[in-house]
């Protein structure tokens, strides 16, 4: 028997769709994050769905459609500070609670996403400026 991926364990495509919807509903309401994003979220939602699916052991949707993720490079055109990363994670944690992911899955996923979010920081925040 194949070991079950986290992706499958929490409900596969339907769960990841709900998570991504809940997440961007929050980003859309967030005064710090909203200005970085385009007027509509359809495309970024789709890409995030592909990415999270792949990251947590589902089909490799992102790489099939967009090639190597190179996420840091893809985020360089946006000035991302530590505050942005924290806010991003806060929105994601709230979205996970809203869709009622099992607590153990939330912890594993947030830890993984925290590492990636930190890696996206490319701009010093106010607290770091001279
Ligand atoms: C740290 C704070 C973050 C900010 C402020 C941020 C912001 C953004 C913005 C503004 C876009 C582009 C929207 C557009 O197409 O115009 C984007 C794209 C994307 N972000 Fe983030 N992001 C952050 C962290 C993350 C993290 C942690 C992940 C991974 C879980 C991620 C995954 C993605 C993906 C997959 C895309 C689409 C890339 C593509 O194929 O073009 N982001 N993000």
Automatic annotation (TrEMBL):
Keywords: Heme, Iron, Metal-binding, Transport
Keyword Iron: yes
Entry keyword annotation includes Iron: yes
UniProt GO MF annotations: heme binding; metal ion binding; oxygen binding; oxygen carrier activity
Cofactor: heme
Pfam families from the UniProt entry: Bac_globin
InterPro entries, per the entry: GlbO/GLB3-like, Globin-like_sf, Globin/Proto, Globin_bac-like_CS, Hemoglobin_trunc
PANTHER family, per database record: TWO-ON-TWO HEMOGLOBIN-3
Similarity comment: family membership: Belongs to the truncated hemoglobin family. Group II subfamily.
Protein name: Hemoglobin
Organism (species): Alicyclobacillus vulcanalis
């Amino acid at each position: 028997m194949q070991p079950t991926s986290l992706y499958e364990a929490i409900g596969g495509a339907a769960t990841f769709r709900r998570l991504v919807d809940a997440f961007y509903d929050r980003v859309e309401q967030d005064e710090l994050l909203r200005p970085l994003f385009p007027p509509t979220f359809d495309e970024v939602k789709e890409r995030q769905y592909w990415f999270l699916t792949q990251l947590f052991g589902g089909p490799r949707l992102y790489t099939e459609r967009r090639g190597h993720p190179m996420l840091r490079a893809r985020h360089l055109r946006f000035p991302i500070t530590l505050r942005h990363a924290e806010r991003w994670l806060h929105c994601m944690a709230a979205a996970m609670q809203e869709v009622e992911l099992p607590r153990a899955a939330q912890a594993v996923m947030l830890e993984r996403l925290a590492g990636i979010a930190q890696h996206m920081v490319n701009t010093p925040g106010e607290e770091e400026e001279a």
